[in-house]
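Duplicate of #3305? Posting structure anyway:
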């Protein structure tokens, strides 16, 4: 799996092996072990050092988390988005006003809202498991949940609509 990550204006080219035990970051190989992976945190061992990532949230291509107490915001693009950019096309946002789409392929673990429920932009509405991590998906707009288009335990594809919100006003 190939990705491009941008942190504090600096771009990183990342490739992960299928077993999720080795990464190549800007042509430097890094071996790692996933020590713990649960809804509250992810702990990685790289060499003799442990790195604890928690407070993880995903909104479109933006991932926010803390590592050993330092908060970070990273923009992440996958191979498809990078190819579209290279060809001169914009891949656009993974959500349009009122529609939440899956930011990546995965499995719906939990639906935190119900139809006709009032929500605020940024409010957690679903938990998506992807790449051995649980990702909190948030409402893209203020309004009322109009339709829930996925069910618990559904496997979903990237950009698949998951829920529609009827905006206020």
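Output from current build:
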């Amino acid at each position: 799996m190939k990705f491009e990550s941008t942190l504090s204006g600096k771009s990183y080219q990342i490739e992960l092996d299928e077993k999720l035990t080795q990464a190549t970051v800007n042509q430097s190989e890094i071996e790692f072990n996933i020590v713990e992976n649960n809804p509250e945190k992810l702990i990685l061992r790289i060499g003799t050092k442990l790195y604890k990532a928690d407070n993880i949230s995903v909104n479109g291509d933006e991932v926010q988390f803390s590592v050993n107490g330092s908060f970070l915001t990273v923009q992440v693009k996958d191979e498809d988005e990078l190819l579209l950019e290279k060809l001169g096309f914009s891949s656009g946002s993974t959500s349009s006003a009122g529609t939440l789409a899956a930011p990546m392929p995965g499995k719906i673990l939990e639906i935190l809202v119900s139809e006709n429920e009032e929500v605020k932009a940024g409010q957690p509405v679903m938990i998506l498991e992807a790449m051995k991590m649980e990702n909190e998906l948030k409402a893209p707009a203020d309004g009322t949940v109009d339709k829930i288009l996925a069910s618990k335990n559904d496997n979903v594809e990237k950009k698949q609509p998951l829920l529609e919100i009827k905006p206020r006003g």
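Confirmed duplicate; merging threads. The first helix runs from residue 79 to 86. Confidence is low (pLDDT under 50) at residues 90-96.
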